[in-house]
Specification:
The protein has six helices and twelve strands. The protein is of the alpha+beta class and 197 residues long. Strands 1, 2, 3, 4, 5, 6, 7, 8, 9, 10, 11 and 12 form a twelve-stranded antiparallel β-sheet that branches. The longest helix has 17 residues. The radius of gyration is 19 Å and the shape is globular.
């Protein structure tokens, strides 16, 4: 009986040691200095039979923020950083008001892509499952404001975030796919200029 209990205790300890946790996920996602790649964003509206789909590219800088470059159906660039959301106009970057659903989604994307679980935990209950190579993070809002916007958020990934699904309280949902993200060491000259302006 003692051997059985000792074996069971060892097994439980080894399972806990192998468990993938939020701190490990944060460290994994925060490791690359730069992540870039294509993006496909689908907005599923209850009133429409087909989703509204936009495509583009993104660049995530661990230190500076997120460049969001939509290329179709409309061309539009956004920069999301600690100052908020800016939209590129012919005269340069213009700061956008930050209280609407799009602003909330953009800040969430930035926090998720950067692995900021402590920031997310302020507004969400976090439920992580899986391993470092194939994980799933479910976010359930606990702040009054976010409960009015989102019912839940589902994030899937491996070494990097691969898919984000946002379910809104009124029944619409958005899916963001990052199918070929690549980690890098440094920003290009153009990317540095875009963050500096």
């Amino acid at each position: 009986m003692k051997r059985l209990l000792a074996g069971l205790g060892f097994w439980l300890l080894s399972q806990n040691a192998l468990a993938f946790d939020l701190d490990q996920l944060s460290a994994q996602l925060a490791e690359p200095a730069v992540v870039r790649g294509p993006l496909i964003q689908e907005k599923h509206l209850r009133a429409l039979p087909q989703p509204l789909t936009s495509r583009g590219q993104f660049v995530l800088s661990r230190d500076l923020g997120l460049l969001w470059r939509l290329q179709s159906p409309l061309k539009q660039d956004y920069r999301i950083d600690s100052q908020g959301i800016a939209k590129r106009t012919p005269s340069g970057w213009q700061q956008q008001p930050g209280q609407d659903v799009a602003a909330q989604q953009s800040r969430l994307f930035l926090a998720v892509l950067k692995g900021d679980h402590s920031g997310l935990a302020r507004d969400f209950e976090l439920q992580l499952s899986g391993t470092a190579d194939a994980w799933q993070l479910r976010l359930v809002p606990n702040s009054v404001l976010l409960k009015q916007i989102f019912s839940r958020i589902q994030i899937d990934g491996g070494a990097l975030v691969q898919r984000i699904e946002l379910h809104e309280t009124q029944g619409d949902h958005s899916v963001l796919r990052l199918p070929e993200s690549q980690a890098g060491d440094a920003l290009s000259e153009q990317e540095r200029r875009d963050f500096a302006q």
